[in-house]
């Protein structure tokens, strides 16, 4: 028996295996009964109810934020206390004394 003959055979190359597997798979797919991906009638629990629950939750959240934002009581404005200006009298030489203290 020749060793060379075994390696040259049609079924020993990877490309041949892959091609046969691909042909077999496409043949099976073509004749398989296809399942529906969508139900025949829309199911209320899977489509509408979660959407309505989300909209309701957002509505409740919006109302809660509006209620919290309303100020409960406002503080009364303070009456302005007018302070009368008083003219003061400083002893002579106060400015020179302050300059000396500042420079030391």
Structural summary, described in words:
- This protein is mainly α and 104 residues long.
- 57% of the residues lie in helices and 0% in strands.
- It has 4 helices and no strands.
- It starts with a helix and ends with a helix.
- The mean pLDDT is 77.
Task: Report a brief summary of the structure.
This protein has 104 residues and is mainly alpha-helical. The protein has helices at residues 3-7, 14-31, 44-69, 94-103.
Kindly list the characteristics that best describe this protein.
single chain, 4 helices, mainly alpha, 0% strand, 104 residues
Which secondary structure elements does this structure contain, and how are they paired or packed?
Blueprint (H helix, E strand, L loop, with lengths): L2 H5 L6 H18 L12 H26 L24 H10 L1
The main pleated sheet reads as: none
Estimate what percentage of residues fall within beta strands: under 5%
| Proportion in helices | 55-70%
Q: Give the distance, in angstroms, between the N- and C-terminal Cα atoms.
A: 116 Å
Shape: elongated
Cα-atom radius of gyration: 46 Å
The overall pLDDT, averaged over residues, is: 77
User: Which regions contain 5 or more consecutive residues with pLDDT less than 50?
Assistant: none
Task: Tell me the total number of β-strands.
Answer: 0
Q: Which structural category do the helix and sheet elements fall into? A: mainly alpha
Order of helices and strands: HHHH
How many H/I helices?
A: 4
């Amino acid at each position: 028996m020749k060793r060379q003959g075994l390696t040259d055979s049609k079924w020993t190359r990877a490309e041949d295996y892959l091609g046969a597997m691909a042909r077999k798979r496409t043949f099976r797919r073509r004749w398989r009964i296809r399942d529906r991906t969508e139900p025949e009638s829309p199911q209320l629990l899977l489509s509408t109810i979660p959407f309505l629950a989300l909209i309701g939750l957002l509505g409740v959240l919006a109302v809660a934020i509006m209620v919290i934002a309303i100020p409960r009581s406002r503080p009364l404005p303070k009456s302005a206390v007018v302070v009368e200006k008083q003219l003061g009298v400083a002893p002579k030489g106060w400015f020179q004394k302050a300059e000396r203290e500042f420079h030391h």
